[in-house]
Amino acid sequence: MTARIEDAGDRLIIWNGNAARRGALGPELYAAIRTAMEQAVHPRIRAIILTSEGDFFCAGGDLNVLIERRSLSEADRRAKVDDLHDLIRAMRESPVPIIGAIKGGAAGAGASLALACDLIVAEAGAKFTAAYVKAGLVPDAGLTASLARLVPRTLAMEMCILARPVTSERLLALGAITDCVAGPDVLTRAHQLADEVARGPRDAIGAIRSLVASAYDQTEAVQLDLERDAMARAAGGAEAAEGIAAFLEKRPARFD
């Protein structure tokens, strides 16, 4: 099995298998991610953890598959890329935060998957690589969009044009990932973050997630309207009633 979903109560864990090939992308991982996004609609689910069975998160696409695709028409090749991009869109539209637990490193579209997560815990020394240019290819799976949001332009060019790997420590210093820990602690730290998320207001966190995502693409005027509408909805909801009451009563809020 190259991918599986573990139901862990208030969270889902997506395990990328295929350890013999350093977690290379495959149809089973595509299916597992899509299924998890669908299951996450259930109010019981508060977070998703995306991690790997082996010691490397994801090596990206299989170049042998790309060789096979050379015989396809450009339209058919575009459709194949769209399958991958639909996966990134599903992650972007997840109803709950996605926490990446990155062991070893992430390359190519694997780096895209990692950086598409909302919170990212990486192993110390893990390397994020975008070496498409070495194969005469260009980044896909939203990598350029993620890099533009997370790192300076010069670093994005260093990764994509010079194909230089970037360590988790450097990304942490830039604020591009959430935490950098020893290898055995990666999944533990991811679960700690999931615990924090699970104690929060599910609907409000989902709205915040959407607002932050839209802020990169919208004008300030449009974003102000989106924030207004989201605040108006939130202020009349049960989560706000509990949260405000807990604050005034000086007690922890209970967002059941």
Explain what you see.
The protein is α/β, with parallel strands linked by helices and about 260 residues long. It contains eleven helices and nine strands. The strands form two sheets. The chain has a six-stranded mixed sheet with strand order 1-2-3-4-6-9, with helices on both faces. It has a three-stranded mixed sheet with strand order 5-7-8. Helix 1 packs parallel to helix 3 and helix 9 runs antiparallel to helix 10. The longest helix has 19 residues, at about 75-90. The model has no long low-confidence stretch (mean pLDDT about 95).
Topology at a glance:
Layout: E1 3-7, E2 11-16, H1 27-39, E3 47-52, H2 63-69, H3 74-92, E4 98-102, E5 105-107, H4 109-115, E6 119-123, E7 127-129, H5 143-150, H6 153-160, E8 166-167, H7 168-173, E9 179-181, H8 186-198, H9 202-215, H10 220-235, H11 238-248
Parallel strand pairs: 2-3, 3-4, 4-6, 5-7, 6-9
Antiparallel strand pairs: 1-2, 7-8
Question: Could you name the key traits of this structure?
Answer:
single chain, 256 residues, 2-enoyl-CoA Hydratase, Chain A, domain 1, Lyase 2-enoyl-coa Hydratase, Chain  A, domain 2, 2 domains, six-stranded mixed β-sheet, 11 helices
